[in-house]
């Protein structure tokens, strides 16, 4: 199947056996996903209707109705996840992938969630932001005992409010979350006319520290991660957010890393309409173009997609839009690196000085990198290398996109007269900045030792 067919057939695949299933002890089937492509929204087959979400490079967990109860089956287990095409990580996750599948249900539903533990150690699931009985809260040792390896526990509660929530372990969580265990939990409003949108995207911000050429995250890392991911995926292999011109769009973002992420979207202003605490009343919203997502929090924002184009969406911390970078590098900005570069290249032909030709060099020259890693920055656009990695994607707003179509429409063609261009005429007179010239001239006598 090509990509478009796969996206269209995504929801159907889950019921046809293309994904492995297990059935035992009357538990609901545990659907398993074996790839990292974005699955089309999973329309509810039973129970109240709602407009399902789309999890970028992810999927929604199917459920079954058992009487009046919506039953899900989560399996905590070691998984192999392609963080990018050609880079596999050995993570822990749920039902075949990290991040875990998105759970979707409706305000007023009673849910029963079976959690089977196939990890080598105990785990629990905490339902972040949901209002539920204390004993269902998933804090190991506090709410209930940890789920031992090989055992299945049942969580059961009523969904008393709609909104944007998440789930993750509250057991050995430094290890288990560093290994990729987390997912989104979306509760749709009972009233389908409340805050309706045409497209509803889910992004979980997470991070890993995986040395180039290796497969397993370092779980002791506190802040110096080298892979900043959305739903355990990095640019250039994070799928675009495909949007039809005129659509009302919601983007829900959760943060389970150990630092904040200012998520910036180009081309639009928008309003935060929901947090993990609930919906924001219209009179309490204010306009933004970047939203800081605090650690352990969720924000959803909405906009009307009235501006066609390819619009960048990214974390505004520039080190978070890079892959697998080292930080222990001397600073040579302003120095004339030509002679030095020549000398170093005699020994290491791939050496690339920073601040000389931009990171695009790396993409252009396709520097040799170890097996099983991704370049710091790559990604090709219609006009050359994009010089990005990590937490970056593109919102593609186009006319004529069908309601259920999330396949990549390709690059936007800027209409004539709407693209920046090279000036070849006469320039107005500029006063030169002598101080700046002095600073940029190398002065060996004052060069700092690094
Ligand atoms: Cu960030």
From TrEMBL:
<feature type="compositionally biased region" description="Polar residues">
    <location>
        <begin position="431"/>
        <end position="440"/>
    </location>
</feature>
<dbReference type="GO" id="GO:0005507">
    <property type="term" value="F:copper ion binding"/>
</dbReference>
<dbReference type="InterPro" id="IPR002355">
    <property type="entry name" value="Cu_oxidase_Cu_BS"/>
</dbReference>
<dbReference type="Pfam" id="PF07732">
    <property type="entry name" value="Cu-oxidase_3"/>
</dbReference>
<dbReference type="GO" id="GO:0016491">
    <property type="term" value="F:oxidoreductase activity"/>
</dbReference>
<protein>
    <submittedName>
        <fullName>Copper resistance protein A</fullName>
    </submittedName>
</protein>
<dbReference type="InterPro" id="IPR045087">
    <property type="entry name" value="Cu-oxidase_fam"/>
</dbReference>
<feature type="domain" description="Plastocyanin-like">
    <location>
        <begin position="81"/>
        <end position="191"/>
    </location>
</feature>
<dbReference type="InterPro" id="IPR011707">
    <property type="entry name" value="Cu-oxidase-like_N"/>
</dbReference>
<keyword id="KW-0479">Metal-binding</keyword>
<dbReference type="Pfam" id="PF07731">
    <property type="entry name" value="Cu-oxidase_2"/>
</dbReference>
<keyword id="KW-0560">Oxidoreductase</keyword>
<dbReference type="InterPro" id="IPR008972">
    <property type="entry name" value="Cupredoxin"/>
</dbReference>
<feature type="region of interest" description="Disordered">
    <location>
        <begin position="431"/>
        <end position="450"/>
    </location>
</feature>
<keyword id="KW-0732">Signal</keyword>
<feature type="signal peptide">
    <location>
        <begin position="1"/>
        <end position="20"/>
    </location>
</feature>
<feature type="domain" description="Plastocyanin-like">
    <location>
        <begin position="216"/>
        <end position="329"/>
    </location>
</feature>
<dbReference type="InterPro" id="IPR011706">
    <property type="entry name" value="Cu-oxidase_C"/>
</dbReference>
